[in-house]
C-alpha cells in the first residue's frame, strides 16, 4: 500500500474523489481514505498543517497501514533562482530549518544525536517523479532539490535568502522534512512533491491565494502520473 499525504484539504481532495473502493478510517482526528487509485492500493490523508501533524500522520501510516512508500504532496514557496510559480520541486532530500542547537556545537538544522538531519528521498521515486513530471506537465519545469521545512510561512526576502545560503534550499514549506524524518526512522521510501505557489517573498501571501489552485492542478496530475507508472 502507498501512503499519500497532503497537509491541507485542497491538496488531497481531488485525489480522494478519484479513488475507487473507498473506505474511511479515522485516527488521531485524521481521516485516512483506503482504496484504489490508478489500480494501486493507496491510503490518502490530510495531515493538518505543521511538522507535528505531519510526523504523527506518517507514523500512523507506518504502524496501522504498513505502507511501503510515502508520497507527500502539496504546495510551497520557491527559493531557487530559476523556479517560477507553477513549477514543481521533487525532493532530493529534506531538512528542518528551524532546528537550532548551535549552543551545543551543532549547525543550524542539525538534530542532536540523530545519525542524519538531511533525510534523503528514495532514488527510484525521484527518477520516476522527474520523468513523469516532464511527460504530464510539459508546460512547466521540474527541479530535483532540497526541501526546507519549518513551522513558519516564509514571506520576506531576508529569510528567503537565508534559507538559500544556509541550506541550499529549492523550496520552503511547513511539513515535508517531518515526514522525511519519520519515514527515515521507519525505513520507508519517500518522496516530497511541491508545486510552487509563491516566491517566499513580501508578495507571498497574495501570490499564494492567487496561484494555489493552478499549482495544485500540476501536482495532482503528477501524483496520478506516478501511480500510473508504478
Molecular structure report:
This protein is of the alpha/beta class and 230 residues long. 37% of the residues lie in helices and 31% in strands. The protein has a five-stranded mixed barrel with strand order 5-9-8-6-10, surrounded by five helices. The longest helix has 26 residues, at 204-229.
Describe the structure concisely for a colleague.
37% of the residues lie in helices and 31% in strands. With 230 residues, it is an alpha/beta fold. A five-stranded mixed β-barrel has the order 5-9-8-6-10, surrounded by five helices.
Q: How far is the first residue's CA from the last residue's CA?
A: 12 Å
CATH topology-level name: Rossmann fold
CA radius of gyration: 16 Å
- Structural class of the secondary elements? alpha/beta
| Tally of discrete structural domains | 1
H/E topology pattern: EHEEEHEEEHEHEHEH
Strand content: 25-35%
The level of helicity is: 25-40%
Number of E-state strands = 10
Task: Give average pLDDT, whole number.
Answer: 94
Q: What low-confidence regions span 5 or more consecutive residues with pLDDT below 50?
A: none
CATH H-level superfamily title: Nucleoside phosphorylase domain
Identify the overall geometry. globular
Characterize the main sheet: 5 strands, mixed, barrel
Strand order of the largest sheet: 5-9-8-6-10
CATH class: Alpha Beta
Core attributes:
230 residues; Rossmann fold; 6 helices
What's the layout of helices and strands?
Blueprint: E1 2-6, H1 9-17, E2 20-27, E3 30-37, E4 40-46, H2 51-64, E5 69-78, E6 88-96, E7 119-120, H3 123-136, E8 142-149, H4 157-167, E9 169-173, H5 176-185, E10 190-198, H6 204-229
Parallel strand pairs: 1-4, 1-5, 5-10, 6-8, 8-9
Antiparallel strand pairs: 2-3, 3-4, 5-9, 6-7, 6-10
Helix pairs in contact: 1-6, 2-5, 3-6
